[in-house]
What does this fold into?
Amino acid sequence: MPLSKIDVSALASVITGLLFLMMRATPLVPDDHRSTFEAIGSEHADAVPGALREEALVVAVTRKGLIYFGHKEVAVEELSTKIRKGLPEGAERRVYMRVDARAQYFDAARALNEIQLAGVGKVSFITRQRER
It folds into this structure.
């Protein structure tokens, strides 16, 4: 008499393979600049589509006082030099600044001072709309 059963070993191997792919795709160390960033709330926040452009100059200040230019951490003393090098020829001299809501005022002021030393006159702060 024949015995009928379902072989699930192929399904188990596919699931195991997917599990390993997902584990590898997940970063082990969260990026402090992106994962724990809490934007400042504002009553009159407007959309700033220029900040989404690939060539936009974005400076971020984290709650720990770290300063990022784009996606790379920089020392505050190097920020003005990096901004001058990052300004494309003939482009609008504007920097978009993201400051964590829990950041110290001193750290944000130092970054803003370096932006002004780079010769940039326009700074747009990226905020979020505050809940009412």
Notes: The longest helix spans residues 9-25. Helices lie at 9-25, 32-35, 79-86, 105-117. The CA atoms of residues 38 and 100 lie 5 Å apart.
